[in-house]
UniProtKB/TrEMBL annotation, chain A:
Compartment(s) of residence: Golgi apparatus, cis-Golgi network
Domain of life: Eukaryota
InterPro entries documented for this protein: TPC11, TRAPPC11_C
Keyword list, A-Z: ER-Golgi transport, Golgi apparatus, Transport
Keyword Membrane: no
Predominant subcellular localization, coarse grouping: Golgi
Biological process terms in GO annotation: constitutive secretory pathway; endoplasmic reticulum to Golgi vesicle-mediated transport; Golgi organization; regulation of protein complex stability
Gene name linked to the record: TRAPPC11
Entry keyword Plastid: no
Domain Trafficking protein particle complex subunit, first and last residues per copy: 263-521
Family per record: Belongs to the TRAPPC11 family.
Species, as recorded: Vombatus ursinus (Common wombat)
Name of the protein this chain belongs to: Trafficking protein particle complex subunit 11
TrEMBL record, chain B:
Gene name for this UniProt entry: TRAPPC2L
Family of this protein: Belongs to the TRAPP small subunits family. Sedlin subfamily.
Localisation per UniProt entry: Cytoplasm, Perinuclear region; Endoplasmic reticulum; Golgi apparatus
Domain of life: Eukaryota
Major localization listed first in the record, in broad terms: cytoplasm
Entry keywords, A to Z: Cytoplasm, Endoplasmic reticulum, ER-Golgi transport, Golgi apparatus, Transport
InterPro entries named among the record's database cross-references: Longin-like_dom_sf, Sedlin, TRAPPC2L
Record protein name field: Trafficking protein particle complex subunit 2-like protein
GO annotations of cellular component type: cytosol; endoplasmic reticulum; Golgi apparatus; perinuclear region of cytoplasm; TRAPP complex
Length: 1133, 139
């Protein structure tokens, strides 16, 4: 935007910097001078001193200094501040003029050069006459200077030069043109800066000195002017603290001025300037709260100072500008690191600025609506001789007139008229929209979504006033959903009303229809007469006719719109509008409900569509259709005006296609589900209600799923919470709130009509072929086809069970791992009604535990639904849990040949292995055979033969076997020596002949083998007889590789006499054996203790007699003496 | 003297809203609605504090040129918003507080009515009268 009358002047808004001019530099043709200038002005970073440089020719004419006033007595100021003053001190009157001159100390023609330089300085001084501006000379030298004091010629000549130019030594500088140019330049400009500060200091002193001549009656304006000047010079001096202080004083002085309608604008303008400076400095000093406080004070003081009532719009414009400028300052401070908050950010100021601009628009509309015959006055009263005003804020037609009385009321009138006519051409909307969009950007940043929406609504409305309807519509449409979502219906209605106007004026059919639909709906807070009007318009549009214009529209726009609408009518083309309603609240509500959450495939699927209209008048529709996820059903669920009501069960008598406001209408549909959809969900994907006809215009209202729009979920929640009793309605009517949407249903298979019985003898025994007989009987009235059986382990159990369970139809062979756990789809064939069929399955369970088995029978049957022939697939399943147990427990123990329990066995010495099979099965078991498979470390002593062949074990019975084994010496093995396996072959006694025998392998326990130094082996008859000799031979075997010393003694026994060595000490060589022969002579009959043999191994004291005694029989049965006669008689017989 | 009093549901839709003069109704609706931005922010900042120590009165929400907007939130997150004329400097914070307390009591009475379904718009004569009394003669 180009700067307007209300924008602050640039020189006010910039940061004042000391003004220094450089002369004697030829920056166009001299490369050295160019480099010097570039070093001054290029890349000025923030750390450089704040100076604004300008290159001027040496003979430049500076603004003339007016002659100093010696007395203010007769002086009457004409205004507060001259418009040119700030610019003059920023850009025209330098604080310092620098004369650059090329001169080396060893210059041969020194005299000439010196005087030329002095002339140049003199010319500059001439043009600055009367000003306090400083002059400095910089000598550009080719040579690097020597350190001070060493170059005698240099100091002499410098002093001479200073003298010639009337300069102090501090104002003469040397700039060697060497590599370190930038460094020298920075030092130079620091020196310049000091001079500049001195200059501004003296300026401040000079202005202050005027004060004493002023009096309060005639020089009020000068107080403000001087205070402002002091503050401004302080700023130039970079003394911002004092600048702020002086501006504050100036601000107070401005408000002390006598205000009248004629000078109100001047006062406000100056107050605005000073306020701007104060706020700016406060933000710069990082005291934002001071800035805000000052601004509030400023606004409060000036709010009511409207000035001329005929130019009230000027006040609004000025207020708007104040807010906008403060917003800009605030925003700038934020960019430099200030943090704003939600409730205090620039957005509020932009917003307020926009409000004042709106006010300005209204005021100008009221004040500037002159007849078109009123022409702009000529000559232009706003023209001045210079083209600008002399003083800020004065009227062009009476500049410098301080009197409060209007000397020329006619001139005043013309001036006001000119201003009013000018105001008429201002594009207010543009200003307002810019301010609003600034505010929107701020509120977006500070988490104010609702404020943002509100401002966007205002922007939209402003666009509407500016007749940019498409932009208005875009904005309004964007924010509508926010208000809809939060349920602020009053606000939504207001926005919709504006949007409807926009869409009418642009003849946007679809938008027009959409907004009408919502304005007629229950979310709209419009009165009924308005709704009637909109409904009538909507009907007209649907009939391909023109709607009536919306109220309060601009007349010329309405004319254009009517033309557009007429064009729309004549245009053939797409006149069908599909409107998805889930995002707004239309005037027809819809709910769909399946009657049940699931339907059997042999019953028709039924559902209801409920419709309710909220508009004031009954409405006709032409078509209602329902779409499903499976589109094949769509054709069955259509109601059309022209069609016969084939699928509609009820309501066909009363006007079907008409919706009465407030009444809930029900439409019932039914269709037959496809058999392919068994097990699937049927879902209503959309419900479409078609208003209007294809002849005119057609609107398809489309509900996603089972109905519901933007507001219905909240309503449903409220309805669910409510305890209110609903009034009773006639039977065929329902309460809208009580209808719950059910948009999907399951299709499930027909109920089977067969019986399935399972016959088996639980529990199953581990690894056996467990027999399960399935009996199927058809109870259907018609033959069933394609009967299939799926049987086996129910899926979804422990994965290990699947590995260890096998199912087969053939019981005659064992299963291996290749057999599955589940046999799917075993064809059985067809069954006539009442026919029964048996199927036997064999299950092998490898581990104990319980398992679930599934028996699943499926079949096909032909049936009719609603006169339609369909093939139904039915199925029935049975599950059974079968426990698997071990058939028997096998106990194994090691005993010595004397049947004593052994913890360990001795190498090379025979021992006995006893097995004990205890039946754990509730059913009788037949042991077919058993087998002992010895490990390589074991050898049988005698022939290994099964003793349990063909033994039948009832529950709790046991069968035992005994094997004599021997283990060769193996050294010391950790954990013992493996014994081998015991294999039991068995089957159920009740099992049929050809069921395979099960082999159960039992791993025998490991046994610890120890070697013993001496083994005693006894040859002893199985019994003795009284008074008959009983020879006993003891074999003492040395099992070691050492010669053994053995002490043997025999303890006498009462029951025996004996002959043989009673006590002996002998040696047995390694690996050999010694025989000891005794002849016992029993004296008593019965079970008698033999004389005990005590063996003492001298080399192995830890092998005790006790241990060795194990091997030696201790008792023998002695039979009584037989009678001789009998013996002979027997022998004779 | 309040110029607008509103009760806002937990879900931020209006339960009750009344303003004088009636011709500025729309403007007050917008004012109340936009003030919910600040309420939301204050409530979410407060969420961390212990429930029993929570102050229901939210204080001045935001100032506009012409009005001051005050907020109050109940433990069930129902918000009360009151708009007061900026020129009315007689109203101190304490008075606003007591007005809100009165409003809260009256709202509680509405909730205790077995025929009132929580979440519905408030149509209660007692509540209306109370609001009217606050709008006319202040506290």
């Amino acid at each position: 935007m180009s700067p307007t009358r209300w924008d602050f002047p640039v020189e006010l808004c910039c940061r004042p910097m000391a003004f220094v001019t450089l002369t004697g530099l030829d920056v166009v043709y001299n490369a050295v001078h160019r480099a010097v200038w570039d070093a001054f002005c290029a890349n000025r970073r923030a750390d450089r001193v704040p100076i604004s440089f300008k290159v001027l020719p040496g003979d430049h004419e500076y603004p003339k200094c007016r002659t100093k006033r010696t007395s203010y007595e007769w002086y009457i100021p004409k205004g507060i501040l001259k418009t040119g003053w700030m610019n003059k001190h920023l850009n025209l009157v330098p604080a310092l003029v620098v004369v650059f001159y090329e001169l080396d100390w060893d210059e041969p023609q020194w005299k000439e050069k010196q005087s030329e330089c002095a002339t140049r300085v003199e010319i500059v001084r001439q043009s600055l006459q009367g000003r306090n501006t400083k002059v400095a000379v910089v000598l550009i030298q080719k040579k690097t200077p020597l350190p001070p004091g060493e170059d005698v010629i240099a100091s002499e000549r410098a002093a001479a030069l200073c003298n010639a130019c009337e300069l102090s030594g501090k104002s003469l500088f040397v700039l060697p043109h060497t590599d370190h140019l930038v460094g020298y330049i920075i030092r130079l400009e620091n020196a310049f800066y000091e001079h500049a500060q001195t200059y501004y200091y003296t300026e401040i002193r000079r202005v202050k000195s005027h004060k004493e001549f002023l009096n309060k009656t005639t020089h009020q304006l000068l107080f403000v002017r001087h205070q402002f000047k002091i503050a401004f010079f302080s700023e130039l001096k970079q003394d911002t603290q004092n600048a702020l202080k002086n501006y504050r004083t100036a601000y107070n002085l401005v408000h002390e001025l006598r205000a009248h309608e004629t000078n109100m604008l001047e006062i406000k303008t100056m107050a605005g300037f000073i306020n701007y400076k104060i706020c700016r400095l406060c933000f710069q000093h990082n005291t934002p709260l001071d800035a805000i406080a000052q601004f509030r004070k400023h606004i409060d003081l000036c709010k009511k100072k409207i000035g001329s009532a005929e130019l009230a719009f000027e006040h609004a414009a000025w207020m708007s500008k104040q807010f906008q400028a403060f917003g800009d300052l605030f925003d700038e401070a934020i960019k430099l690191g200030l943090t704003a908050i939600q409730t205090q950010n620039p957005g509020f100021y932009y917003q307020q600025a926009a409000y004042y601009s709106q006010e300005r628009k209204q005021l100008s509309k009221a004040l500037c609506s002159h007849e078109s015959s009123v022409t702009y006055p000529s000559p232009d009263p706003l023209e001045t001789q210079t083209g600008t005003l002399d003083f800020y804020g004065q009227r062009a037609w009476r500049q410098g007139i301080l009197s409060f009385d209007l000397s020329d009321p006619e001139k005043e009138k013309v001036g006001i008229l000119a201003l009013q006519l000018k105001e008429r051409n201002v594009s207010h909307s543009e200003i307002i929209i810019t301010l609003l969009s600034n505010a929107v950007a701020q509120f977006k940043k500070y988490k104010c979504p609702r404020m943002k929406s509100h401002l966007m609504v205002q922007m939209g409305e402003e666009y509407y006033f500016a007749k940019d309807y498409s932009k208005a519509l875009k904005l309004l449409d964007y924010v509508m959903c926010d208000y809809r979502g939060e349920g602020w219906w009053t606000l939504l209605t207001s926005i919709l009303t504006t949007a409807l106007k926009c869409s009418y004026l642009m003849a946007q059919l679809k938008d027009y229809i959409t907004y009408s639909l919502e304005l007629l709906g229950r979310a709209s807070t419009l009165k009924d007469d308005q709704k009637s009007r909109i409904e009538k318009n909507l009907m007209n549009v649907l009939m391909n006719e023109n709607p009536d214009p919306e109220p309060d529209c601009d007349m010329s726009a309405v004319k254009t719109a009517q033309k557009l609408w007429a064009d729309r009518v004549s245009l053939a083309g797409s006149n069908i509008f599909t409107i998805g309603v889930q995002d707004f609240v239309p005037f027809v509500q819809c709910k769909a409900r399946f009657l049940a959450p699931s339907f059997h495939v042999d019953v028709p699927v039924q559902f209801d569509i409920y419709l309710k209209a909220d508009c004031p008048h009954p409405i006709r529709f032409s078509k209602l259709c329902v779409s499903f996820n499976n589109q094949e059903y769509n054709q069955f669920c259509v109601i059309e005006d022209t069609q016969q009501m084939g699928d509609i069960l009820e309501n066909s008598a009363q006007g079907t296609m008409c919706l009465v406001p407030g009444k809930t209408r029900k439409f019932t549909f039914k269709f037959v589900a496809k058999t392919e959809d068994v097990g699937k969900k049927i879902e209503i994907s959309s419900v479409d209600l078609i208003l209007g006809s294809e002849i005119g215009r057609c609107v398809i209202l489309s509900w996603q799923g089972g109905g519901g729009d933007a507001a219905s979920s909240q309503e449903a929640l409220q309805a669910a919470r409510s305890f209110k009793r609903r009034p009773k309605l006639p039977d065929n009517e329902v309460h809208w709130d009580s209808i719950i949407i059910q948009a999907n249903t399951m299709i499930i298979s027909r109920v089977p009509n067969i019986s399935v019985h399972l016959l088996h003898e639980p529990p199953a025994l581990t690894n056996e072929m467990y027999c399960l007989t399935v009996t199927i009987q058809s109870q259907e009235k018609t033959p069933i086809r394609d009967v299939k059986l799926t049987a086996g382990l129910k899926p979804g159990q422990d994965a290990n069970l699947t590995q260890k369970t096998h199912v087969t139809l053939h019981g005659t062979e064992m299963c291996d791992d290749s057999y599955p756990a589940l046999l799917p789809d075993i064809p059985i064939g067809d069954l006539q009604p009442g026919e029964q069929l048996e199927k036997t399955l064999y299950i092998q369970c490898g581990t104990v535990g319980s398992r679930m088995f599934l028996v699943y029978i499926s079949y096909l049957i032909n049936t009719a639904v609603e006169g339609k022939e369909i093939v139904c697939k039915c199925h029935k399943d049975e599950t059974v849990t079968i426990e698997t147990v071990f058939p028997f427990d096998v106990a194994v123990k090691f005993v010595s040949t004397k049947f004593e329990h052994l913890e360990r066995v001795y190498a090379d010495i025979p021992f006995l292995l006893m097995t004990d099979i205890l039946s754990a099965s509730p059913w009788a078991l037949t042991l077919v055979s058993s087998q002992l498979q010895l490990a390589s470390s074991m050898t049988p002593v005698d022939h290994l033969q099964s003793h349990v062949e063909k033994v039948v074990l009832q529950t709790g019975e046991s069968a035992s076997e005994c094997f004599c084994l021997q283990c060769p010496s193996v050294g010391n093995v950790e954990g013992g020596v493996p014994t081998g396996h015991y294999i039991i072959s068995w089957k159920r006694t009740s099992a049929i002949e050809n069921v395979p025998v099960i082999n159960t392998v039992i791993t025998l326990p490991h046994v610890i083998v120890e070697s013993i130094p001496l083994h005693v082996n006894t040859d002893l008859p199985s019994f003795g007889r009284v008074r008959e000799s009983l020879p006993v031979k003891y074999h003492l075997q040395n099992k070691t590789s050492l010669v053994q010393d053995v002490e043997i003694s025999v303890e006498p026994s009462d029951a025996f006499m004996f002959s043989g060595l009673k006590q002996i000490r002998l040696r047995i060589l390694p690996g050999t054996e010694q025989e000891m022969l005794y002849n016992f002579y029993p004296l008593m009959a019965g079970y008698q203790q033999l004389p005990s043999l005590n063996i003492n191994l001298l080399r192995f004291p830890n092998v005790t007699n006790q241990l060795l005694r194990r091997f030696i029989p201790a008792y023998i049965f002695v039979k009584p003496q037989g009678r001789q006669a009998d013996d002979t008689s027997i022998a004779a017989a | 003297m309040a110029v607008c009093i509103a009760v806002i549901a937990k879900e931020n839709y209006p339960l009750y809203i009344r303003s004088i003069p009636a011709e500025h109704e729309l403007k007050f609706h917008y004012t109340v609605h936009t003030s919910l931005d600040v309420v939301d922010e204050k409530v979410s900042a407060m969420g961390k504090a212990l429930v029993d120590q929570r102050e229901l009165y939210l204080g001045l929400l935001y100032p506009t040129e012409d009005y001051k907007v005050y907020g109050y939130v109940t433990n069930s997150k129902v918000k009360f918003v009151m708009v007061v004329d900026s020129s009315n400097t007689a109203l101190r914070d304490n008075e606003i507080r007591s007005m809100f307390r009165k409003l809260h009591n009256s709202y509680t009475d509405v909730m205790c009515n077995p025929f009132y379904n929580p979440g519905d718009r408030i149509h209660s004569r007692a509540f209306d009268n109370m609001v009217t009394s606050m709008m006319v003669q202040g506290c």
